[in-house]
Please model this.
Amino acid sequence: MIHIVGLPRFHALGLLLTLTVIGLCVPMIAAGADTTADAVFGQPTLNDNNPNQPAGLPTVENLSLSNAAHVAVAPDGRVYVSDVDNHRVISWPDSHAFVSGAPANMVFGQPDFVSNAPNAGGAVSAAGFFLPQGLCIDDGGNLWVADAFNSRVLRFNNPASDGTPYVADLVIGQPDFASSDPNLGMGFSEVDVASADSLCFPGRVLVRGTDVWIADSGNSRVLHYTNPTDNKPLADRVLGQFGDFSCRVKNNDGTCSEKFGVAATADNLFNPIGLGLAPDGALYVADWMNHRVLRFVDPLATDTTADGVIGQPDFSDSAPDAGGVAQGLELPIDLFVDGVGSLFVADSGNHRVLVFHSPDAATSADEVFGQLGSFSSDAPNHGLSLPFTDADGLWGPTGVAVDAHCNVLVADTNNSRVLRFDSPIRACADMNCDEALEFDDISAFVLAVLDRDGYQSLYPGCFVGGGDLNHDGRLDGRDVALFNAVLLDD
Model:
């Protein structure tokens, strides 16, 4: 269940008193599944999609996306995008206030906004990337980057306060910042081995408190680390390889022997990428080449066998779009779980993002982006003649995130852009569940913080996670500040 961190009573009541005294009048915001984008990062308009517009060179405003490009939003609204083909991560200050065409104001991995050589044009270092992919911002505001082709994950201490914000402070998967060999030099062929401290083309990183999860895609496994503080830490848990840190077999059958075409099971993985952590502690893994999403109920306390599957009729099937496009998945590549437990899936091969409101019991999705509301369509840019696009289209999306205002951001990779959909699913901070953000939500939010049982009794159809505005599975002091900001901004 979602964890409510203790909050001094006067802080929460002070919020209520402050908002009441200033006579806050918040307009109602109707909920609805509006899947037309409202803003675009990386392109001049919602109808443009050439990489590095306008001249094919990187600028402070454009993107050139490929591979498993990603987008992440910090609790304060700062947006980070892994601009893969430009070998950089660029950042805009506020997802909610962003206006299409606005320039980024931070760049990681390059000395400036007009450079795009791998590893900043030099040797491997703490300040360069080679095809960066997955991004995560932890509780302390630190930025984590899966630097895929350097076979490492980097942590940059909170860029807002660090004296050297563009130089990484920790590396996982390598002994130092100058090394980049897959699996620490042990190789990445079908007969090579991995280890508990190695990585091979990592695709995603997910951090919650002291728990760090890495989708070690090239080794067909997911690794867990507990509070890594030194370079090249040892993982203490592995999913997908029967607990064997040395095995890197795709769809391992338990023997770690290479046999092409071995069936998928509840215990193996085939180039996993996306990761999502639900409020109840369940871990979701986008098992990319098995065309499925796996659910692990409590992977740290129990076994490493998946407990549920989305996109396939059972654990042994692995065909794309099993049962048809409306029921299946094709190359699901990224995941995001919001504060109320809805699972967002970037279903890249079907050119859409799906939303499952009850993923633990889902047989089909509840919402779809990119296909004009149709669950049975799978054409790039909803059937527009390529390469044309618009505000409704997606072409190979590879990343999805939700900000504190419940705006949905999608890395629309083959269109070289990131789209923002303004509160398309629900009114954020709607604590009394009347499908609107209004003054009455203040008292409901305070009750949820101070007395969970009382909140659930008074609002039996609501979920306390509606107040988890940074989507970290907890209702705590960070959400109080965000709730205040959402009310004032909207």
User: Anything to note?
Assistant: The CA atoms of residues 142 and 157 lie 5 Å apart. The chain has four helices and 26 strands.
